[in-house]
Specification:
The chain is α+β, with helices and mostly antiparallel strands and 270 residues long. The protein is 22% helix and 27% strand. It has a 7-stranded mixed beta sheet. Strands 10-11-12-13-18-19 form a 6-stranded mixed beta sheet, with helices on one face. A two-stranded antiparallel sheet has the order 1-2.
């Protein structure tokens, strides 16, 4: 039976005879169903029209993006460490070329996911590389394709490999998490926060496509969690947003103040 994949968000469903009646990700107010209606494709059709592009962002950090644009358009980030590789977040397209390239780079010890909007084809990726796919338990209900490789973690932090740790900050989703890469003093935040076009700030949103910000109290709480982490760089899940390569912690602090107090007061604060 085919595996249907939502063309709007890219989430793949378990095999079934006919397309699902709805995409629960897109029906949610954080996402959207296009005015043209719900549309479905399959992994085979996707692979016939698209391919994956690999780009090195920094030593040991490679972005994997699907071209042309598909679904939400996020990129997966391959983190290379002495203890093995971790794939941060996921994309829908998994073709033989992608599998061969990642295996040549050392394969995967784990896949870790920030939140449900980037679930895409997580079960297929877990099976292909025979590795755990780490998802926070708080977002279990958004999984559309159950699989034995899915590993639901609990609490506020989980070490993936030495020096690579997941932190649940919530906000965008109850289980929204980021990855802290201690050796490189880098954060990979998914959509927990998003780098803004000036690359001097980040945004904290409940819904990015619908422009719904998080409440000030939530941003205050998230800011306090971020304040205890040691980081200097932030790498965005979207190529057009780029990343903040230095002084990222100060950028986050400015952004928290701007979100809570407004731009004018944040600008004049000491």
């Amino acid at each position: 039976m085919p595996q249907f994949m939502c063309e709007t968000c890219g989430q793949q469903h378990a095999p079934r005879e006919a397309p699902p009646p709805r995409c629960m990700i897109c029906d949610d107010d954080r996402q959207f169903v296009p005015v043209t209606g719900q549309r479905w494709t399959t992994p085979e059709n996707l692979a016939a029209r698209h391919s994956n592009m690999f780009r090195q962002l920094a030593p040991g950090l490679i972005a994997i993006s699907t071209v042309p644009h598909f679904g939400i358009g996020q990129r997966a980030l391959l983190v290379q460490t002495p203890s093995g590789n971790v794939l941060w977040d996921c994309i829908s397209l998994l073709d033989e070329a992608t599998i061969s390239i990642i295996r040549a780079l050392g394969g995967l010890k784990a896949i870790a996911i920030s939140h449900p909007h980037f679930y895409s084809a997580i079960a297929s990726w877990g099976r292909a590389f025979d590795c755990p796919v780490l998802l926070h338990e708080a977002d279990r209900d958004w999984v559309a394709e159950p699989d034995s490789h899915l590993d639901f973690w609990h609490g506020d932090s989980r070490e993936v490999l030495p020096g690579v740790t997941l932190h649940r900050l919530g906000g965008h989703f109850p289980g929204s998490s980021l990855l802290h890469w201690a050796e490189r003093r880098a954060l990979l935040p998914g959509d927990t926060m998003l780098v803004t076009p000036d690359r001097r700030h980040v945004a904290f949103m409940w819904s990015y496509p619908n422009y719904v910000p998080l409440p000030a109290a939530e941003v205050t709480r998230i800011g306090s969690r971020l304040a205890v982490l040691d980081f200097d760089a932030i790498y965005s899940p979207f190529a057009d947003r780029g990343h903040i390569v230095r002084d990222a912690k100060a950028a986050v602090a400015r952004s928290v103040e701007r979100h809570i107090h407004g731009p004018q007061q944040a600008r004049t604060s000491p």
